[in-house]
Amino acid sequence: MSDSKSIFIKESTLTTADGEQRQFIRTALGGYYKNRDLYKARYRDWELARDAASLAKWSAVNNLAEVLEKFVAKFESNGGKVHWARDAAEAREIILDLVAKANAKAVIKSKCMTTEEIHLNDALEKAGYGVVESDLGEFIQQLRGEAPYHFVFPCMHLKREAISELFTKHLGTAPTDSPEELTMIARRHLRKLYITADVGITGANFLVADTGQISITENEGNARLTAAMPRVHIALSGIEKVINSIDDLSVLLPMLATAGAGQPMTCYNTLYAGPKKPGELDGPEEFHLVLLDNARTQLLADPEQRDALHCIRCGACLNVCPIFKNIGGHAYGTTYQGPIGSVITPHLRGLKDWNHLSGASSLCGACTDACPVRIDLHHHLLQNRRNAAKVVPNLFDRVFHGTFNFVIQRPALFSLGGKLFRKTFGLLKHLPVPYLGTWLKSRDLPAIPQKSFREVWKDSKNV
Fold it and tell me: What is the rounded distance in angstroms from the CA atom of residue 272 to the CA atom of residue 266?
């Protein structure tokens, strides 16, 4: 068993046993459902809007090389500098080099899941640079030494009392249960860091090809300060974030807000075109963009699951997923949780070690129904399971399914097997039969019938 699977089983077992925590998450998401449905209802045609958003991403992803070239040319004509990274190690190396050239002593960072994907904070800290997350949720998780619980709501699993205790311990503030005061504590601490930081690091929600701008959407305004105040701005983005036109934002930005956070629009939506020009007072002196592949082109080469690259990281699929609500975000052990994470992580990090995530699904289809860009998520989970069965060796599975395939095609053997199963089931469930004992720990089966359906049917015909 892989380490990632062992962690998954351990963490999910602990979380599902914590009924209070599970109820807290469900209550928190209850408010999201109410607001999401309220603002979805204000669309003239929500399903048509989904079609438009899906088409915007489809047209860019299916012409990725061409659209990326157009974006890069425009971005560099605006004064920015593009760096290409094939994998996480190369991206870290590029960013560390840029930070070193800036003679940076402090780094401020806004919310960016792609930096979590490449483990950038650890690399910066090991190199001796102080780095602080400026997003409130990410800042809280950084103080706790934890990864984000949810890639949109990083600390949604925490109650205000726990956050107050955290701030008292690390920032020396008085205990409080007021959300407003907790927010102001973080704000007072972070404000001075924007001024002293030499480098600001952000992500990018979208890369706009026809204008050469990056689009960042946020609710706190911290990304604006992170991009504008330090001398050097470094943005990190996956190559799939590119879109054709600024007009596409007219559907993608409100869809992102409504599906992801239950808002009509996110509070701050900003387009960054390059470093400040001569005579301008605001903005960085240097603007660098690191474009990351990290197995995205391998996913692009798969026509069956290519639409997973359409993801706009709204988190809607996590919010409706019954598995996520029960096992929590940390159980996944990877950057992207929930259904979309279970689809793309085997591609990004290896099918052999991460195929178990695709089994963490009820296949109810709620994720596909919620996705604003119509990614076929629950079918992709099935496709990952199929692919894993082909390439990941499992002797028991191969023998069991091979035997079952042989028996089910032979009615006499199938009938005999049913009789043996009914006679021996009481013994089997107490033996260390692979999967069966674990499966029955959380399930109560009905009484095993004395006769098969075939026998009951035969008897009814004789009456």
Answer: 17
